[in-house]
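User: My instructor asked us to take a sequence, write out its structure as tokens, and then describe one feature of it. I'm not sure where to start. Here is the sequence I was given:
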Amino acid sequence: MAGRQDARTAALVVGPDGVVSGWSESGQLLLGWTAEDAVGRPVTDLLAAPPPPGFPGSYGSGPDHTGLMPLRHRDGSTVDALVSAHPLFDADGRALGHAVTVHRWERRPVIADLAFEQCPFALGVYDPDLRFLWVNASACRVMAHSEEQVLGEKYRELFPELDDKAYTNQLSEVARTGEPARLITVFRPLGSDYANAWATSMWPVRDAEGRVRAVANWGFDMSAEYWARQRLLILNEASGGIGRTLDVLGTAQELATTTVPGFADLVTVDLFDEVLRGEEPPLPSASATGEAIALSRAAEHSAKSDTDRAPGHPMPVSHAPGSVATRCMATGRSTVQLPAEPGHGGEWAFGPGLAADPAHWPPGNPVIDESIAADGLTGRITVPLRARGALLGVVVFSRSDRPEAFTADDLILAEELTAKAAVSIDNARRYSRERTTALTLQRSLLLQQLPSQEALEVASRYLPAGTGAEVGGDWFDVIPLSGARVALVVGDVVGHGLHASASMGRLRTAVRTLADVDLPPDELLTHLDDLVIHLASDVQPAGHFQPTGEFGATCLYTVYDPVSRRFTLASAGHPLPLIISPDGTRTPAPAQPGPPLGIGGLPFEATELELPEGSLLALYTDGLVASRERDVDQGIAELLRVLNHSATSVEGLCDTVMDAMLPERRTDDAALLLARTHALDPQHVADWDVVPDPAQVSRAREFTLDQLEAWGLEEASFVTELVVSELVTNAIRYGEPPVRLRLIRDSSLICEVSDASNTAPHLRRARAFDEGGRGLLLVAQLTQGWGTRHTTDGKTIWCAQALAEPEPR
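Assistant: Let's start with the prediction itself. The structure tokens for your sequence are:
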């Protein structure tokens, strides 16, 4: 048995009669028979099984024969061997028998030869110039050529249509460097319209001296795995590429661009107009297949860019009754259209290993439709766009440039992509609706028109956050006060959306109410702080429901008096106003901000400044100065730089500031209020200290009439004389000294009487026989408005009359 391990090949000669006539020494090593034992014996005695047809000794002098057969060893064991028999002839052509070679089956070259030949992978060997030296049967099937047709031919010359540069260049590189390589190539085999993906390994073949004499390679068709991976990559790309913005048209365009050209050559996305407007989509009609459906083409993207739909410009489209799109929207099921059916005028080009398995297709698919071939298409998938049970529109994936048709797996991918896009589009629709509602609410609550007043030249701007963010709670207000004064207010409510807009409206109403009482800024913020605390307790959940959001706010309340040029301010956690003096000095107001509203228990401090006439005031919310690119301090410094006191118009300056300060993609609302101060001419203000004696009432009337005559307002003398008489009489009778009368000529004629008492008068209706109680009623009836404001040393009762033609200052 040990000898058999050393035997490589045995040789013998078999005569025409099938008797062994020659025996080699290696035959003894392989089978144990000596020449004396074997010569003269029938060759069939050496076989452990009946000889196959054509073997020497069974049919005489047959042709060449090669086959695997069991041989009998002398010790009785069996030796599997590859036996080759070749006929022998003399010079006259007479048969002399057969020369037979025996190769032990266990010997590696024999096993390798048969393994390589029968390998299901395509195997090939090339010389350094890429000439075919050897190919196996699988490679021949791929190339659609026999081994005899390719041997000695150059790959690039024999198959120019298969000349994948990456493949052939890599073969040449392996031959040049001697370094093995691996790669994946995608090509269409001869006779197939389907692009196959092949995994290929290449390695150098060296001789005994280590020189590269050839390049070998093997490859196998991994199309199923490759295309599955490509579908997974498309789905992964869609995960990050679809739904990046809360914009309906943008999301539709993302679906179209993500799937071209990796999955389809043309994609269209059609949506209902209600979806584009952010409204609820229409309910599906029971007879949808019997009537046309009007949609808008929200997105269209093609491998040929000249057919793309311009973003943001939907085009009306109508799907005819009974069309595939109409049926899909009515039934909620996708449809795959293919141009031909196997065995009926054509073959689906699914490629090796990717045949259309009917079990993988959902019911009703695919639909054989020859009309799509007339449109130049090789396949079309129509998928209804549905989200949360609502029909939003329809998506169509078409192939034209590539010959391969859609598979059942492609249908699954199309439905996955559409489902993801549908949820994102519906989210964008819902966000658009809520944002529009919040923005409408907020704009309705904001100041619609600046009130008429003479103390300040005012301009304002408000810009909500970009489309990717919710509407915030920024607000501002301009409130005329008594004595020609004006209050400027800016605030910001914590949070975004409807909750913030509604909260902003409540705070703005509260500030207006408190301002009407004419409270000082610090007292007003104290009352506002109490209100915010109560509002916060109102939104706390009574049960297991969560609160709608955190409630808190900041507010800046300021008052400017054009008579004294005094500017009083108090801040509840809000950025301080910026002051630009006529001489160009730029600085934030020198004040200390208090805590934000809603903290409670902490005081607010008012600061009073005297401003030169023509000073520029800038009040703003943090959305104007804070962004991802800069912090608040940097933003304030930039705002100070941008503010230009020499600007002739505060309206134009507002536009300049907003353009310079706000990035294109904003994440927060921004409000800006600019005001240029005016000072009232001292000659338009007259005051007089009234001695607390009823006899001085007549002198107060005289003072008033003289001043009105000096101002040229004689037509207002009668009413003003009555008003002054009543107010001064009340102050002397019910107030405390000192008593002071002041007349202010502004856009209206203002009469003020001050005293040291904190008791406020009340308007009441006098009975028929009452001797008093009619003074304030007369004041209220004869003037445009009246009221009381408390000061640190008493109170002031005021009233205002409209002037027919007020003169400019």
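For the description part of your assignment, you could build on this observation: Residues 790 and 796 are 6 Å apart (CA to CA). Try explaining in your own words what that tells you about the chain.
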